[in-house]
Design the sequence.
């Protein structure tokens, strides 16, 4: 009476589990390679040796125009 139905169900379940594990492993590996922990900053070059933050920003040419004018806060 058993036509191999039980073996087919067990095989399908095992195959599904294997496929899910493979897809999960691929997603985890891809995530690990894409998120290495390195990042880029937009800090001015050469500011790591400045005595204070103000001294470092005074040398930045992009901020030179903004520092020339005075602003008063009331």
Sequence:
């Amino acid at each position: 009476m058993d036509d191999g139905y039980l073996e087919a169900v067990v095989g399908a379940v095992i195959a599904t589990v294997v496929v899910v594990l493979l897809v999960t492993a691929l997603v985890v590996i891809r995530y690990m390679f894409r998120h290495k922990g390195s990042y880029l900053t937009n800090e001015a070059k050469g500011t790591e040796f400045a005595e204070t933050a103000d001294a470092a920003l005074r040398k930045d040419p992009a901020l030179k125009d903004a520092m020339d004018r005075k602003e008063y806060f009331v």
User: Anything to note?
Assistant: Helices lie at 5-34, 53-58, 64-68. The chain is about 55% helix and 0% strand.
